[in-house]
Amino acid sequence: MAPYEPLWRRIRREIQTKIAAGILKPGDKLPTTRELADQYDTSGVTVRKAIDLLIEAGVLEGRQGVGVFVADTPDENASG
What we know:
Blueprint: H1 7-20, H2 33-40, H3 44-56, E1 60-63, E2 67-70
Antiparallel strand pairs: 1-2
Helix pairs in contact: 1-3, 2-3
């Protein structure tokens, strides 16, 4: 059986995977917290935790009153 993974970690991982796969590209806007909460059947607080950690890591960029976007350089190592 797989070890328990908190939902916020799964959300964070899945967003990172979509960015790595090119599904989400730099400048792309993420769904709203409410839309993501509905998608994962969880609370906005759980979604916010995943988003906030990705913003802290520089993967995402929050713009007050506009939304959350994929940062221009989601992975410093990608440039070589």
